[in-house]
């Protein structure tokens, strides 16, 4: 941004609540805000590593989940783990997919140098030409490639005066949560009321006309760029980014949370990993994976925020960046320049910066443009050799083959990935990547504190469903630890139940034995009672029978005795009778 250019911002502060109610700005400032969606994660983390977010800001750093650990791992890895040095630089300095548009912003957050083009001048007269967009590339003839000029052939690439993403002359309202609306009286009333600002008379207006190298004395930043860094930082960490950026004395509260996606599953594409589970804690200690899975992980660094939000249907609990994304979606397309709203909603990944083994098939690279090499006549009628994206703009055009660094140096085949093949990696639950080719596995296990080998359990997992891969990306952004534990929590619960089954079976068998013994004991007791009852009945029967027999015998004895005492005359009388 030139020193004579300015970005005008007006904002209103609720003095009682100590909150920014809303801000009003032109298209230039809104272009800067919308450009946040085009930034790959690697650029944001690099700016944090370089201390850009910490200038004049004593508050918390920008820790986007565990992505910072992933970036640091890539930075600390030895170059021989990658196909070449270029692959490592691609991850540490990812390219903005809307680079041509963002170069025209009045103020750029991304300080990555513009793309340069390189070719082998030794082979320039041939018909099989190799072009590279990466410095340090080697031609397959063995020569190093040198810089060559790209012909700028359109107003879009050279820059226009209408704006970058939205109409420059249009006015917009930006609310405290980064919701952006067209400036109108109705939009100035309803949203503030929703935020609880009912008394407009207690709002203080602050108007700032700022350039790159100057800021008003009362403003909390030494220059405009630091202010924009602060807004970006708060957009990723706070629910009220404008208040936390413009009123730095406020106590900022972090706002991010992980909510797993339980959407429909898709079986296209899969990556296999080995998961080591800490049984006693029911968490994932680490995973073992090959280069394909690590390629997928490190490709998070080359993915823009807009593409991530597109994958998640705009639902990401990471500060207020989702509100900015929804604003692009909801603003009338007629206020955007061309189809820039569609580009912001899904910037995709810059050509050659994507992951070939990505389970998220919808996360694709931008189409690789074709390049032509030929003669161009300059304004002073001089001929020179240049490259162009249009065949009709150069004389004697020769189509060029694009060098892809994601393979062996100088190769013309399609790239396969960032990591050299074959290779085995350990990835911790907080996304620290450790190559086993250059590290001792025994030493690594010894470094694990309070973890017994008997407490580790091995499982193989195929990341084949798109929502599984999406949950891993979501957890990486919103969790400062336990990325795999959270994203694969349903598997942990399943494995815990499976571990409980043998134990439950043993308990069940023990219970069955106890129940059986109890039954036998009760049966024996019942049988004893029955036996005693039978014996008692038998005794009673015998006693009754004995008594009956006794009575019978007594009766019979009486009869015999009577017969003996009767006289013959009495007997005859009885017979007569």
Automatic annotation (TrEMBL):
<dbReference type="InterPro" id="IPR007750">
    <property type="entry name" value="DUF674"/>
</dbReference>
<protein>
    <recommendedName>
        <fullName>DUF674 domain-containing protein</fullName>
    </recommendedName>
</protein>
<dbReference type="Pfam" id="PF05056">
    <property type="entry name" value="DUF674"/>
</dbReference>
<feature type="compositionally biased region" description="Basic residues">
    <location>
        <begin position="539"/>
        <end position="554"/>
    </location>
</feature>
<feature type="region of interest" description="Disordered">
    <location>
        <begin position="514"/>
        <end position="577"/>
    </location>
</feature>
<feature type="compositionally biased region" description="Basic and acidic residues">
    <location>
        <begin position="514"/>
        <end position="538"/>
    </location>
</feature>
């Amino acid at each position: 941004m030139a020193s004579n250019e300015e970005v005008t911002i007006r904002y209103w502060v609720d003095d009682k609540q100590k909150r920014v109610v809303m801000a009003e700005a032109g298209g230039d400032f809104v272009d800067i805000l919308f450009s946040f969606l085009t930034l790959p994660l690697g650029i944001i983390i690099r700016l944090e590593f370089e201390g850009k977010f910490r200038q004049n800001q004593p508050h918390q750093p920008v820790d986007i989940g565990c992505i910072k650990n992933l970036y640091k791992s890539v930075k600390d890895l030895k170059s021989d783990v990658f196909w070449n040095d270029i692959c490592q630089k691609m991850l540490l300095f990812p390219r903005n997919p809307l680079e041509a548009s963002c170069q025209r912003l009045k103020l750029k957050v991304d300080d990555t140098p513009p793309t340069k083009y390189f070719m082998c001048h030794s082979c320039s007269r041939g018909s099989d030409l190799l072009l590279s967009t990466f410095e340090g590339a080697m031609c397959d003839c063995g020569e190093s490639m040198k810089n060559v000029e790209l012909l700028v052939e359109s107003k879009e690439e050279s820059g226009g005066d209408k704006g970058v993403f939205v109409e420059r002359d249009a006015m917009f309202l930006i609310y405290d949560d980064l919701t952006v609306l067209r400036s109108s009286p109705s939009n100035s009333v309803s949203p503030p009321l929703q935020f609880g600002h009912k008394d407009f008379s207690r709002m203080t207006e602050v108007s700032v006309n700022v350039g790159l190298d100057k800021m008003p004395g009362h403003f909390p930043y030494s220059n405009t760029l630091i202010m924009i860094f602060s807004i970006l930082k708060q957009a990723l960490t706070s629910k009220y980014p404008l208040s936390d950026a413009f009123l730095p004395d406020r106590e900022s509260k972090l706002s991010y949370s992980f909510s797993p996606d339980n959407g429909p599953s898709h079986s296209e594409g899969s990556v296999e990993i080995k998961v080591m589970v800490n049984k006693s804690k029911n968490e994932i200690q680490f995973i073992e994976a090959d280069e394909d899975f690590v390629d997928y992980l490190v490709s998070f660094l080359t993915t823009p925020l807009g593409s991530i939000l597109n994958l998640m249907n705009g639902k990401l609990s990471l500060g207020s960046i989702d509100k900015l994304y929804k604003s692009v979606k909801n603003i009338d397309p007629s206020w955007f320049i061309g189809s820039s709203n569609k580009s912001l909603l899904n910037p995709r990944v810059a050509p050659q910066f994507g992951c070939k083994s990505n389970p998220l098939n919808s996360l694709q690279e931008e189409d690789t443009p074709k390049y032509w090499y030929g003669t161009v006549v300059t304004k002073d009628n001089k001929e020179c050799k240049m490259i162009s994206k249009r065949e009709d703009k150069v004389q004697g055009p020769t189509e060029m083959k694009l060098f892809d660094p994601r393979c062996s140096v100088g190769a013309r085949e399609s790239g396969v990935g960032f990591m050299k093949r074959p290779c085995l990696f350990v990835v911790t639950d907080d996304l620290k990547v450790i190559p086993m080719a250059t590290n001792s596995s025994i030493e690594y296990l010894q470094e694990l504190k309070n973890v017994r080998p008997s407490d580790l359990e091995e499982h193989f997992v195929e990341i084949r469903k798109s929502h599984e891969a999406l949950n891993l990306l979501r957890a990486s952004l919103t969790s400062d630890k336990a990325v795999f534990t959270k994203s694969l929590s349903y598997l942990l619960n399943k494995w815990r139940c499976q571990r409980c089954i043998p134990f439950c079976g043993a308990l069940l068998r023990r219970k069955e034995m106890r129940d059986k013994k109890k039954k036998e004991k009760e049966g024996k007791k019942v049988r004893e009672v029955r036996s005693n009852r039978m014996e008692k009945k038998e005794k009673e029967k015998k006693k009754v029978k004995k008594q009956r027999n006794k009575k019978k015998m007594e009766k019979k004895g009486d009869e015999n005795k009577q017969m003996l005492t009767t006289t013959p005359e009495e007997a005859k009388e009885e017979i007569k009778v």
